[in-house]
Design goal:
Elements: H1 12-16, H2 23-34, H3 43-53, H4 62-75, H5 81-94, H6 114-118, E1 134-145, E2 148-153, E3 164-165, E4 168-169, H7 173-180, E5 184-195, E6 199-210, E7 220-222, H8 224-229, H9 241-247, H10 253-258
Parallel strand pairs: 1-6
Antiparallel strand pairs: 1-2, 1-4, 2-3, 2-7, 5-6
Helix pairs in contact: 2-5, 3-5
Length: 264
């Protein structure tokens, strides 16, 4: 709405500039929705190419992914490129599987697959062992005032860049509330966990009934309607949706306790 005049961009470069959209998502949208011959390279595609062509490069390395994307860019069909990308997606999803034995006897390209021919499907692709995820103990603050909840926007770079969120910190809750100048009654709101590629959030929710509407700069109060229509909150906070929905009157208390009804 702010950058594109309310019209979704129709070319790869402009789609790629949208907050939270990476190369894979931009390539998938541009090719499938708008017919642009650009690849959509993810782990499935890297696995397929490594097995078919017998490539022993470490697919976890950025330069390997970049090289394959460049190779696919040259090979992309100019007619129905979205079908080409979707074919690779489907091949990786149901045939050339990442865990366990791939279904090579059902594979439409097994005759030209190096890994199948040489019996190396359990060796390819090569992928370095992932480092253990860093664990972060976070307090998620559900700050309420007059039927609204406080949200803030994450930085433009880094994890969940540019997305709105419930305030959350690894610092002690008392220090956070004091630093923000927020006072009010508090209550626990349960725990949750969300796993990212390199970090795990172990979350403890804290409900705060704020005494005033004053918030740190850049934060906003949002009611239930605004959460539904205007703000995209990350799925990391989904475990708190029933509590938020109940307190904002979006669902009844009984449904909030008995269901995982989605807020967004």
């Amino acid at each position: 709405m702010e950058d594109c005049g309310g019209e979704f961009p129709s070319d790869y470069e402009r789609i790629r500039k949208l907050t939270g959209v990476g190369e894979y998502t931009a390539g998938a949208i541009a090719s499938i929705a708008f017919g642009w011959p650009v690849p959509a390279v993810d782990g499935n595609v890297l696995r397929i190419l490594s097995r078919i062509l017998g490539d022993y490069s470490d697919i976890s390395r950025p330069e390997v992914k970049r090289r394959w994307r460049e190779e696919l860019q040259r090979a992309m069909p100019r007619v129905q490129p979205g079908d080409f990308n979707q074919a690779l997606m489907e091949l990786g999803a149901v045939i050339c599987l990442p865990n366990g034995a791939p279904h090579c006897v059902r594979c439409p390209v097994s005759e030209c697959c190096f890994a199948f021919r040489e019996g190396l499907t359990d060796t390819l692709p090569v992928k370095a062992s992932a480092r253990p995820r860093r664990i972060e103990l976070r307090t998620v603050f559900l700050l309420f005032h007059n039927g609204k909840i406080a949200i803030r926007r994450r930085p433009d770079r880094g994890l969940l860049a540019g997305l709105w969120e419930y305030p959350n910190e690894i610092r002690p809750p008392e220090a956070c509330l004091s630093g923000w100048g927020i006072k009010g009654k508090t209550a626990r709101a349960g725990t949750g966990k969300h796993i990212f590629t390199h970090v795990e959030w172990h979350m403890s929710g804290l409900v705060v009934e704020a005494e005033s509407a004053a918030l740190p700069e850049g934060w906003r109060w949002a009611d239930g309607a605004a959460l539904r229509r205007e703000y995209a909150l990350p799925s990391a906070f989904r475990c708190y949706e029933p509590e938020v929905s109940r307190r904002l009157g979006m669902i009844s208390e009984s449904k909030a306790k008995g269901s995982g009804s989605r807020l967004l």
